[in-house]
């Protein structure tokens, strides 16, 4: 009796070998992706890591060669010196005031305008929305001089008004993000609310906004970071030192009390400056990521 060839008797070993090869290729591909992302992440994080290590160094040891990534000895004395050299709390109060007002204004105005574009049907709606989007293409330096002339005529120079009032006029980028998110919310909710006698404003406030927490959190983070890091506008409109924001006031650490400050103290001030945005990002991280993922997906 003639025996059949082994591979014809049982194809399972061949399948297992093929499956093992596929799994090996997938593991290798995943390992390469994670290794590449780790290297890129490390490169991006290098400036922050250098700031952190420099802030912990003893003044006078910053420029040692070769550079020390792990300071020896490490010290925390640079942080109290920041408060001694500049009115840090005054600058922090001004930044929190300006940033909070601008963020609230942007959320209110952008959400109202976006609700109109997403929920109302009127002639020229799409054309008007395109016009709003085109304003994002205008370079900011083009509007600096006209804006300054306008605010000077209004008597707003050396006040917080030029830094906060424009946020209540609906920034185009925030309108775009919120409109795209509002489009993902079913219109059946609007129809059901209207049958119960709800007005458009009530629908917006009690139905749309509670369902839009991810998008609102995204806008809040973007607005807070943009206004917190704004250096040019406070430099243009603020004259008195006691009205400076932290982004502008922290610059005094370069030369405080007519003495060039050690880079270790400057880096300590930089870390204190970065603390509020980092805290906000971690607090809103879940909503922020969800808002980025879902924005732009239509039903």
Keywords:
about 300 residues, mainly alpha, 15 helices, disordered C terminus
Q: Please give the count of helices.
A: 15
* Overall morphology: flat
Percent of residues in beta strands: under 5%
Main beta-sheet strand count, sense and barrel state: 2 strands, antiparallel
Low-confidence stretches: 295-299
Order of strands, widest sheet: 1-2
Helicity range: 55-70%
- Mean pLDDT across the residues is 85
Distance between the termini: 67 Å
The succession of helices and strands, N to C, reads HHHHHHHHHHHHHEEHH
Would you spell out the secondary-structure blueprint of this structure?
Blueprint: H1 6-9, H2 12-55, H3 78-85, H4 88-119, H5 125-134, H6 140-154, H7 161-164, H8 172-182, H9 188-195, H10 200-211, H11 213-228, H12 232-237, H13 246-249, E1 255-256, E2 259-260, H14 263-283, H15 285-294
Antiparallel strand pairs: 1-2
Helix pairs in contact: 2-14, 3-14, 4-8, 4-11, 11-15
Describe, in plain words, how this protein is organized in 3D.
The chain is built from 15 helices and 2 strands. The chain has 299 residues and is mostly helical. Strands 1-2 form a two-stranded antiparallel ribbon. Helix 4 crosses helix 11. The longest helix has 44 residues, at 12-55. The protein is flat and about 70 Å long. It starts with 5 loop residues before the first helix and ends in a 5-residue tail after the last helix. The model is unreliable at 295-299 (pLDDT under 50).
